[in-house]
Amino acid sequence: MESARTRALVSKIIMYVILTIMAFIMLVPFAWMILTALKTNQEAISVSPFYIFPANGWHWETFGKVWKSYNFILLYKNTLLMIFFRVLCACLTATMAGYAFGRLRFPGKDFMFSLVLIQMMIPSQIFIIPQYLMVSKLNWLNTTAGLVFPGIVTAFGTYLLKTGYQGLPKDLEEAAGIDGCNIGQKFLLIMMPLTRSSMISLGIFTALFAFKDLMWPMIVCPSVETTTLAAGLAKAQGQYSSDYPQMMAAAVLAVIPMIVIYIIFQKQFVEGIATSGGKL
Amino acid sequence: MKEKQKMSAAAKNEAMWGWAFITPTMLGLIILNFYPVINTIYQSFCKTGDFGKGNKFVGLANYQAVLSASETWGSLINTVKYAIIEVPFGVVIALVLAVFLNKKLAGTSIYRTIFFLPMVCAPAAVAMVWKWLYNQQFGLFNNIFHTNVAWISDPKIAWIAVGVIGVWSIIGYNMVLFISGLQEIPGDYYEAAEIDGATGIRQFFDVTIPLLSPTTFFIVQTRVIGALTIFDLMFMVMDKTNVALKSVQSMVYLFYTYAFTNGNKGYGAALVLVLVVFIMIVTVIMQKAEKKFVFYN
Fold it and tell me: Residue ranges of chain B with pLDDT lower than 70?
């Protein structure tokens, strides 16, 4: 009895030690990013002595400088607009198609749904050249419309919402049918609100994917004024590569909004990723 | 008779709503995805004029050029090497962490928050920070360990250094999926194992690993495809002037360079199709392996 208890205690301690070491490793890059941002460039590139912490006060003003010189207002605005419209389009089209695939009967349904599944299996890189040519023909280069373009519809979201609708009990709809609702009303008033959790998953997934994507914004929005945070950083790295505190401050400003949102909506984030399990 | 007609009217009505509801998505998929697949294949047989105009049919010339370039095979090998680091380490570390966090220890939510943090950061920013950590002269690693390693410009180790960033970035995501898989394993399996005298590590190998294998397979499959299409990290870490670029750059990086930096869409299209075929082969092999290794309850 005694030995079992000691063994449990020892294994608990080992687990905590491993978890803590891993947590430390995970946090080092974040800590180093913030610490560097708060140094002067001389401190950042000083080797002997090597400074871990800023030696002469914490230079918060670097953030203000970077905010202006990298045009962060515009980067935030562009990123936010892209995310907003992508989430809106994805949720709207996917919830409609998901409802039809999950609850309605119509000819050609299986074939159409197989197209949705096939799209999910194709690596997205194969779409990029023609998508870019379309955007450029539409004169949408350097616009929000261009950024949103490939995300107007979502096969993955359709699949996710279809599963959500299929999970709802049948009798709800039948009761509504007796009350004289047509299919559109049933969908809008009864069924759609019930798939809220799937919609939130899709929304988080879409927002995160759009926020992290680098190649598409670099291609369609090469200008600094119209591009997103991720692509803006890539541009900045090329331009200001020798001022390390400024670069790290820019990186902090680029990751902070999503980290704050994540910490507030942690439960939804984790559940959203776990249930959607999509290809990020 | 009247009843039947009424039914068919209702069925027709339902079909109309169904078609109306899927129309936006299907139209979008055709324009944004299915047409582009055909167009990419078409372009791979063409020599690109300026701005994608004036395509000239050149037959298999692009494929000949792509397949005879040592760069193509080099970057395919680089991509596989990246996957060989990211997938196994990312999966095993995440699995261990998930098992620990599933034990209902105090404070697990804080650990989970920390491990998942890289997932909500743009890889562009993550790569910038790691590049700074790896900096040969001023970086944290060389100064703390008193080494002088060219982490990202020595061809022999740069691919490992980039792989480490990939592992660091993906652990949280894999872990979250593992935790939700672990929670689906019924508790009685563990009770039964305990009665049989199986403890901690034995339980892990006898119960957790087999019952978790569908989740593991799902993660491995998505991560293999994700790793084979890696771009952001490499693009941010590896400058055009980096001497190790040739031995690190992935297929998608090469595709980006040709299709968009150099504007050679035809060559880029052929390159991306080679990658897609490779991914399809890998997927088929994995599907075959699934039948062998995955335990479905």
Answer: 1-7, 49-54, 297
CB nearest to A100's CB, from B18, B179, B279: B18
Same domain? For A29 and A97 the reply is: no
Q: Round to the nearest angstrom and report the end-to-end CA distance of chain B.
A: 48
Contact (CB<8Å) A15/B256: no
Is the Cβ pair A121, B121 closer than 8 Å?
no
Residue ranges in chain A whose pLDDT is less than 70? 1-2, 177-178, 240, 276-280
pLDDT digits (tens, 9 = 90+) for B132-151: 999 999 999 999 999 999 99
Q: Which two tokens stand for residue B266?
A: 């035809």
B58 falls within a domain = no
3-state secondary structure of A85: helix
Model pTM? Answer: 0.92
Q: B120–A262: do the CB atoms touch at under 8 Å? A: yes
Query: Is there a contact between A33 and B121 (Cβ–Cβ < 8 Å)?
Result: no
Q: Which residues does chain B have within 8 Å of residue A104's beta carbon, measured at their own beta carbons?
A: 14-15, 17-18, 21
User: Is residue B285 located within the same domain as residue B145?
Assistant: yes
| Number of compact structural domains in chain B | 2
Task: Show which of A63, A94, A115 is a domain's final residue.
Answer: A63
Q: If we measure between CA atoms, which residue out of B81, B69, B7, B77 comes closest to residue B267?
A: B69
Which CATH number is A73's domain given? 1.10.3720.10
For residue B30, the enclosing domain spans 2-43
Looking at residue A2, what is its pLDDT?
62
- A-B Cβ pairs (cutoff 8 Å, strict): 274
Do residues A250 and B124 make contact, with C-beta atoms less than 8 angstroms apart? no
pLDDT digit string (tens) for B21-55?
Answer: 999 999 999 999 999 999 999 999 998 766 555 67
Distance to chain A for B291, nearest Cα, Å: 19
Nearest to A130 among B35, B96, B126 (CB): B35
**A 52-81 near B (Cβ less than 8 A):** none
- Together in a domain, A215 and A270: yes
Number of domains in chain A: 2
Tokens of A39: 């140094």
Name the burial class of residue B200, with classes exposed (0-12), middle (13-18) and buried (19+) by CB atoms within 10 angstroms of its CB.
exposed
Same domain, B31 and B87: no
Q: Is residue B258 part of a domain?
A: yes
CATH classification of the domain holding B234: 1.10.3720.10
Are A35 and A169 found together in one domain?
A: no
d(CA B237, CA A238): 11
The range of the structural domain enclosing residue A177 comes to 69-276
One DSSP character per residue, A98-156 reads: HHHHHH---TTHHHHHHHHHHHHHS-GGGGHHHHHHHHHHTT-TTSHHHHHGGGSS-HH
Task: Flag if B103 and A15 touch (Cβ within 8 Å).
Answer: yes
Last residue of a domain, one of A15, A41, A63: A63
Chain A residues whose CB is inside 8 A of the B176 CB are 270, 273-274
